[in-house]
Amino acid sequence: MALTGAQILWEALVRQGVTDVFGYPGGAILPAYDAMLGYPVRHILVRHEQGATHMADGYARASGKVGVAIATSGPGATNMVTGIATAMMDSSPIVCITGQVGSKLIGSDAFQECDITGITLPITKHNYLVTRAQDVAPAIFEAFAVAKAGRPGPVLVDITKDAQQTSCDVDWAAAEPHLVEAFDEALPGDGDYRDAVELINSAERPLILAGHGVMQSGAERDVLLLAERAGIPIAVTLLGIGGVPASHPLNLGMMGMHGEAFVNNAIQQADLLIALGMRFDDRVTGNLKTYALNARKIHVDIDRAELNKNVRVDVAIAKDLRTALAEWIPLIKKGDRKAWLDAIDVMKGDTAVRDIQNLPDNGHLYAAHVINDLWRLTAGGAVVVTDVGQHQMWEAQYYKHDRSRSLITSGGLGTMGFALPAAIGAKVARPDAEVWVVCGDGGFQMTMCELATIVQEGLDVNVAIINNGYLGMVRQWQEFFYEKRYAATPLIGPDFAKLAQAFGIDGVAVTERSGVAAAVNGARKSRRATVIDFQVEQEDSVFPMVPAGADLHKMILRPSPSPIVETAAD
Amino acid sequence: MLHTFAVYVDNKPGVLNRVASLIRRRAFNIESLTVGHTESAGVSRMTVVVDTDEYGARRLEAHLSKLVPVRRVHNITATPSIARDLALIKVAATGDARPHVMQLVDVYRARIIDVSPESLVVETTGTEDKIDSLVEVLRPYGVIEMVRTGRIAMARGSSGSDHKVTARVGQPTVAGGDGSSGSV
Fold first, then answer.
1. A106 contacts chain B (CB < 8 A)
2. Catalytic hit among A88, A416, A446, A473
3. Residues 37-76 of B with CB under 8 A from A
């Protein structure tokens, strides 16, 4: 039976197991929207196409499935660019479908025409311009295969209006993708796992660096197995949080710019770094010239192009992490490495004393307290979706994630405005999960239009705004490195509680620590979304900190005893 | 140092753009890039010369391998191989100069393929060194115009041909990249 290109699109999506798509209609995608009504797919109407891509991204990260976003040509497509770049940097598998003007009009500057395959070429794994109905199914199938293969990432399929409108017969078997041999071939320079095993067995001070790849590969258990078998401590990247339980005694916590100083010092003193599914980002290494000079290095990543990119390593293995670890583990000598673990304990020093959680409540509302309270009140069981900035780092420090895929955050691109839409995606993917947005007042205002999406879809997503009236992380840099010249960082926002109410969502403001529990519990009990405006200390800073490009061991520590710069209001 | 890659790609619209864009955004500098058909229908071969170190070369090889229309990448820098460049050189040659120019062309085993009252067009193939050297000796007579293909290269003997790259079957015949309609 002949189907239109638009029908083939939905049939292909359904055959790929798609049940939910995030989108916004428009002229060039209208035939697809018209055909959608005949297929069992839930469409979530977003308020801005950037939101659709972040939702698809949040959906993918929460579930491990491919997220789908759909938009029209021209501005609909260009609005997706930030979300696609975000997914590219954080290796999130999404497929974006855009309408395009009729194939006869391409190149003529037609209404809402734009070369979206050209624009997204450097920020997608691959993209397709489909101009004939018979090419729709193969393109969609291949797009899903590419999005998931190897290191996951975004793929865009641009479909002309006439390709959606014309009809053809489909041979579904022939449309199955014929893909890509590249990842299985060993290339010259590939490391041997036996070298890795030998390095691990002979190391006295080894340290595992666990990244996003641990979860992407489903290697959570295997990493723990390796660590426990050989008594190797673990440090995690921002995107690696949750891959190893925070409460596990061998998990030291987050490394890098805002990791604890003793974690970074352990990296500097280790004699072997075992980097698993991470990519030595500059926020993790600090100054490369002084990075882990004492350590031999093993690097396992599914993306060969990451090996020997920023840090030269002794053994580089381009492989799926779980597969690689399965080879090693039986060959790893058992041990407890007590001396090294004791040495790390000593490095902790007065970390606990300086920790803001151990300071008395002095009437200020600190973001770190809010987030730590949120962790306790949700029993660590929530899926937390953060934005970018100070609150993101405090979340990483003070919400202890024991479960895989329970922290969703924009790491590589650092996209403000990510949290609210990504949380909507996460909630759609996992309706039974408790989903919290933790975001700043700046980032929230970038995409707060998606509150309407929450209402229209009846979603129970709670929002904790860490409201300090500043673009806080930029203000912190201005304080530390620009002599407190606060250029364009003081920020006026609306009354967020009232704003939420205007959308038909519960909204409350909290100004004291004593109000935190009631607000959080109230939001958890209600079966609908709640926005909590936590009006926190304005000039609070994230400690400890490695200044950009500085040596990893030269951190700015938390001031002791009081970490807070007194504000003018005091 | 200069690294030479033989890159087999699907002969599809926009592929050249994808390869060039990748090399640009990863901040490598292209010394030369040539592309043309191969012995297999539907497969084109690029010769890409890039100035980078060993690690950079390995990374670029990996990046290129990740492009969907790229079928195989082979760094033939260390492989015994034949490299050739083709040049057309228009050189001023009037009066007394003309026999001198023709003599030099002869010495270099180049060919004169066009003659006009004021100039000659010289065609030559060879290594880049040889062509550079010919250009240098012609320069005093006045090189009016020159065009070069850039390096094409092939491994010697049977190496490199063990896995023959053939056209993909069942592939979506969709355009990509810049959406242009020309091949590669």
1. yes
2. A473
3. 55, 58-59, 61-63, 65-68, 70, 75
Cβ pair A307:B62 closer than 8 A: yes
Sign of the C-alpha dihedral, residues B122, B125, B126, B131?
positive
Contact call for residues A440 and A390 (beta carbons, < 8 A): yes
User: CA-CA distance, A232 to A250, in Å (whole number)?
Assistant: 7
pLDDT at B31 over 70: yes
> What pLDDT, on the 0 to 100 scale, is given for residue B171?
57
Burial zone of A527 (CB within 10 Å; 0-12 exposed, 13-18 middle, 19+ buried): exposed
Could you say which residues of chain A have pLDDT below 50?
182-183, 562-570
Q: From the candidates A7, A55, A80, A161, which is the catalytic residue?
A: A161
Partner-chain residue, chosen from B17, B68, B171, that has the shortest CB–CB distance to A126: B68
Which chain A residues touch B16 with a CB distance below 8 Å?
none
Which pLDDT score, from 0 to 100, does residue B172 have? 56
The interface pTM score, or ipTM, of the predicted complex is 0.88
Residue B163 has pLDDT above 90, yes or no: no
Check if A111 is active-site: yes
Q: Of A78, A296, A74, A119, give the one whose Cα is nearest residue A204.
A: A296
- DSSP annotation string for A181-202: -GGGS--TT---HHHHHHHHHH
Q: Do B66 and A128 touch (CB under 8 A)?
A: no
Do residues A278 and A300 touch, judged by C-beta distance below 8 A?
Answer: no
A254 catalytically annotated = no
Query: Cβ of B59 and A117 within 8 Å?
Result: no
pLDDT value at B27 more than 70: yes
The residue type of A179 is: L
pLDDT of residue A336: 92
What's the gap in Å between the CA of B35 and the closest CA on chain A? 20
The answer to whether A557 contacts chain B (CB < 8 Å) is no
| Cα of B144 to nearest chain A Cα, Å | 37
Answer whether B76's CB lies under 8 Å from B6's CB.
Answer: yes
- Is the pLDDT score of B176 beyond 50? no
Residue A211 contacts by C-beta under 8 Å, 6 or more apart in sequence? Answer: A236, A237, A239, A240, A243, A275, A276, A277, A278, A279
pLDDT score of B159: 63
Concerning whether A257 is annotated as a catalytic residue, the answer is: no
Q: Between chain A and chain B, how many beta carbons pairs sit less than 8 Å apart? A: 91
Q: Is A109 on the interface with B (CB under 8 A)?
A: no
Contact flag B59-A308 (C-beta cutoff 8 Å): yes
CA distances from A132 to A4, A159, A161 (A): 10, 8, 9
State mean pLDDT over B119-132.
Answer: 95
pLDDT at A180: 53
State the pLDDT at residue A54: 98
Q: Please report the pLDDT score of residue A128 as a whole number.
A: 97
- Give the single-character DSSP code of A211: -
CB distance from B175 to chain A under 8 Å? yes
Q: Are strands A94-100 and A155-160 parallel, antiparallel or unpaired?
A: parallel
HSE on the CB side for A174, CA within 13 Å? Answer: 12
Q: Encoding tokens for residue A39?
A: 């297929």
Question: How confident is the model over B49-96, as pLDDT tens digits?
Answer: 999 999 999 999 999 999 999 999 999 999 999 999 999 999 999 989
Residue A245 is predicted with a pLDDT of: 98
Minimal Cα distance from B74: which residue of A? Answer: A187
